[in-house]
Amino acid sequence: MSGPLTVTDMHTGGEPVRIVESGYPPIPSGTILEKRAWVRDNLDHLRKLLIFEPRGHYDMYGALLVEPDLPGADLAVLFMHNEGYSTMCGHAVIALGRYAVDRGLVPAVEPLTIVNIECPCGMVVASVEVTDGKAGAVSFESVPAFLHARDAEVELPPFGTIRFDLAYGGAFYAIADCRQFGLAFGRSKARDFVDAATALSEAARAMVPLSHPDSPDLAFLYGSILTDGHDGSGGETTRNVCVFADAEVDRSPTGSGVTARLAAMAAKGEIAPGDTRLFESVVGSRFEGAVALAARLADGRAGIVVRVKGRAFYSGRAEFTLEDGDELGRGFLVR
Q1: Strands 112-119 and 122-131
Q2: Catalytic one among 89, 119, 178, 242?
């Protein structure tokens, strides 16, 4: 490590976003997926230094800004977590939308500033509410989302037969009613949700092959979302918890997860374009989600574009260093 790493920390709905501002070496030009692969293969020690203890923790999340490749992109980002590098992250996009306005990465326009963010899954358009020069709530429209497998079933000891959907919202998720595992929000322990979701992810990965028309790099199961079994219609709020990567727990309702849930709902006829749903996380934070419009994938499959809205807040700034001989300072995890 040749110099300090400087970061700004934010959170969206309680889920951390550590935005790297300086300290990374130059990253070769190329597509965003090529940049993702290069950083993974050559700079993963910096991810561990930033995300792992003693500077981070098991559930820390990070965002590395890189040079955009897509025309019209205002910024480009690589997402980091305890296992590696994800393809989409809605809570980070919400934070980056506000960050881009506040840091002058895009000119602030009232009442709404558009920020085009290039993510590994493609271009994501963030709309930042601006009042008296100050950025507020952020909504985003992600890449086309779709239901990949409906009502799949797997035998999952000791729970029995579990029914789930597989949907894509910038990343693939298995989605299941938590009641099938004997769980209930507000009564069951977080550890029990983590164990159930992790078991479902492992089983779904082995059972259902994934594909994405844009790139094989997108065809992997990111995690599982356990829901309260409701679709949020009639003005009610539906609760869910997302367990992704290496059993990492999202404190927010999960932007890409909300997108995937809405894609599954739309495919089942449970929500129509223009309808809005409220999604609540394990810490009580909420995202608003709506079907913006119908979409068509490159291979002809039907999908939708989803709009997700939330708020992000600043929590601090830091400069991280590594002294010679500090092996633990390179990063470790205790769970």
Answers
A1: antiparallel
A2: 89
